[in-house]
Specification:
alpha+beta; CPE0013-like fold; 10 strands; binds iron/sulfur cluster
Length: 126
């Protein structure tokens, strides 16, 4: 099988052409450093991505807080994690790095907040 990948490890974005069978790479072209081959190998065997999304916030100065997984997760879980994320609500205040959900899908997948949300009630009483 032949396929082209764009390596996303660094801003170079090398276009890597690969000929492979199963998980065995037979020919590789366009990788400007050894990380490119590792990236392609992962893409063939178990592609990983960082999930990003938003979660509803109750009583916050904003109604949504952006979230992400702290580490890349298997690409096959992204859709399901997106569906679950739309069902989650958190109560303000929220701090950056706060875990808003943990062990999703029983796969040890956490979501952490990437912005700060103040409590609306607290702000209006000041
Ligand atoms: S192959 Fe190496 S140089 Fe090219 S994008 Fe990947 S990490 Fe960067």
């Amino acid at each position: 099988m032949e396929r082209e990948f764009i390596c996303i490890i660094c801003p170079n974005g090398c276009r890597i052409k690969v000929e492979y069978e199963g998980t065995n790479i037979k020919k590789i072209k366009g990788d400007e450093c050894p990380k490119g081959k590792d990236y392609v190998k992962n893409e063939i065997t178990n592609p990983l991505r960082v999930f990003t999304g938003s979660v509803l916030v109750e009583n916050g100065d904003f109604s949504l807080v952006s979230v992400k997984t702290p580490v890349p997760i298997p690409k096959k879980h992204l859709k399901k994690i997106g569906e679950i994320t739309r069902q989650i609500k958190v109560e303000a205040p929220v701090i950056i790095g706060q875990v808003v959900a943990s062990n999703l899908l029983n796969e040890n997948i956490d979501l952490i907040a990437t912005r700060k949300i103040e409590n609306r009630k607290f702000l209006s009483s000041q």
